[in-house]
Design brief:
Layout lengths: L16 H18 L1 E3 L2 H9 L3 E3 L4 E3 L2 H10 L4 E3 L8 E3 L5 E4 L6 E3 L6 E2 L3 H13 L3 E4 L13 H12 L4 E4 L2 H16 L9 E5 L6 E2 L5 H8 L3 E3 L4 E2 L7 H22 L5 E2 L5 E4 L4 E2 L4 H17 L4 E3 L10 H16 L4 E5 L1 E2 L4 E3 H19 L5 H4 L1 H7 L9 H6 L14 H6 L5 H13 L7 H23 L1
Length: about 475
């Protein structure tokens, strides 16, 4: 079992301290003068009780700077997500870098067996999670599928069930609204008991409607903060659509939305674990789709990481995603751009590995390829050590002119530091042809099939508890609705 590494990025930044201060000040003005509109009465009432300026009729919430600054002081600068197995815990702080499988549910999955995309099922959720659990560089698990074959009222509950039973790695996933959140917290207690708030096995993804809104689904923040389960925010206003077309303007909106969630969480429970995610996305004006493969999308990671560092908060960002519909050259270029940028700017949680079509299609083959790309990214981010041992002057003197270093003990000592590829082809063209002329997608398919052919590791006692929670949720949500 490979443990998460202590890799740290942060070599890349495009913004000065003054730039970040300007974005921060603009966000505070947005919160104080423009505000957010809430369709949730519970959230509006809570803000009103805590000193914000709230119009309960319209739902408009204006948050004073003093309340925001106090919340920032209370938010922790380090958050740990433990997973079912604490040995796989990830510590989110500073510029530590972790890669993760997938994101929120995808409406389609690229079936690696047939090559066609279709609606995913709970079985796909289980298989995708098992794949992520086996991929060496996936430090946490989200989704590249969805349980669209179960009653929609309990879709998220079934997806959590599929994930929690199929991996011991940390999980980050959606649980919109109080009902889903309460059931997920039950699942957390089935794993951790009363230690849930001190040793959370997962974080819960939260996203406000943008621009500048709270929704009933965001009432989960109240539950999560009260139970000290990590809140993982992913705001992405789109340039020229749901935000100004300029990156700085969009960042001000995204940042304001993050600060609103953070303020709500810290007002509920000071010290509530919060992970900052202030992205910006580009609306492609030709296709009217969010462009995951655009340079502006990657630059949003830089803004995100810089603002999080400004606030001393853990970060959530993008990496292994593409607009391509299949694992091809476009996908490779875009995944490398997004992953390398995210790691070099020091995003803690780099998610979306295995996402195609701008997040509409999940692909197990692409997840394997993204895993391979992340090994390259991690090697680059690790950097270059310069000292007497690595300068190797004595070794150079031993070998001398016209010699070779292959048999020298120094080479054997350090050979493990060199990157080796498991999926990408480095053999000669002649050997490649003899081996069947397989391209990277062929090899990725073989890797997926090999992993899924292994028997799953099951915790029967936990699975029984999870099944009971799912059954109860179905009775409450589905049968209760019919009654």
């Amino acid at each position: 079992m490979k443990m998460p590494s202590d890799l740290r990025g942060g070599q890349l930044s495009l913004l000065t301290r003054m730039d970040l201060r300007k974005i921060h000040d603009s966000s505070l003005r947005i919160l104080k003068e423009i505000g957010l509109k809430s369709s949730s009465k519970a959230i509006a009432l809570f803000f009103s009780k805590m000193g914000a300026e709230v119009n309960l009729d319209s739902g408009l919430i204006r948050i004073p700077e003093s309340i925001v600054n106090e919340a920032l002081r209370k938010a922790p600068d380090s958050v740990t997500i433990y997973g079912r197995d604490p040995r796989r815990a990830i510590v989110l702080e500073g510029k530590r870098v972790y890669f993760g499988l997938g994101g929120t549910p995808t409406p389609y999955i690229l079936d690696f067996r047939t090559g066609n995309w279709r609606r995913p099922t709970k079985k796909d959720m289980i298989e995708a999670t098992r794949l992520g659990d086996s991929l060496s560089e996936m430090d946490f698990i989200m989704s590249i599928a969805g349980a669209f074959d179960v009653p929609y009222e309990v879709e998220y509950i079934h997806e959590w069930d599929a994930m929690l039973r199929s991996t011991s790695k940390p999980i980050v996933y959606s649980a919109p609204g109080p009902f889903n959140t309460k059931k997920v917290l039950e699942m957390g207690r089935a794993i951790k008991g009363e230690r849930l708030g001190k040793e959370p096995p997962f974080g819960v993804y939260v996203e406000l409607p943008t621009p500048l809104m709270f929704d009933v689904s965001n009432e989960n923040v109240l539950e999560l903060a009260e139970n000290h389960v990590p809140i993982v925010v992913g705001q992405m206003p789109q340039l020229g659509a749901t935000a100004p077309i300029t990156i700085a303007g969009a960042a001000s909106v995204s940042n304001a939305e993050n600060l609103a969630v953070l303020t709500l969480a810290e007002l509920v429970s000071p010290g509530a674990p919060f992970i900052f995610g202030a992205f910006v996305g580009q609306l492609d004006m030709r296709t009217a789709r969010l462009a995951y493969g655009s340079p502006e999308f990657a630059m949003g990671n830089i803004v995100n990481a810089s603002l999080a560092e400004f606030y001393k908060l853990p970060t959530f960002g993008f990496g292994g995603c593409s607009d391509s519909k299949v694992p091809d050259a476009q996908a490779g270029a875009e995944v490398m751009m997004n992953s390398l940028t995210a790691a070099l700017c020091g995003i803690n949680l780099i998610h979306d590995c295995g996402y195609l079509a701008g997040g509409s299609i999940g692909s197990m083959e692409e997840a394997v390829i993204a895993n391979e790309i992340s090994t390259m990214v991690k090697r680059i981010v690790k950097g270059i050590d310069v000292n007497d041992e690595t300068l190797a002057f004595d070794v150079i003197r031993d070998v001398g002119p016209s010699g070779h270093f292959l048999a020298h003990p120094h080479s054997l000592k350090h050979v493990s530091t060199l990157h080796l590829s498991d999926v990408f082809s480095r053999e000669s063209e002649v050997k490649w042809a003899k081996l069947g002329r397989k391209d990277v997608r062929d090899k990725a398919k073989e890797r997926v099939a090999r992993i899924l052919s292994q028997p799953p590791i099951e915790d029967k006692a936990l699975n029984a508890k999870l099944r009971e929670i799912v059954r109860n949720a179905e009775r409450e949500a589905v049968e209760g609705k019919r009654g």
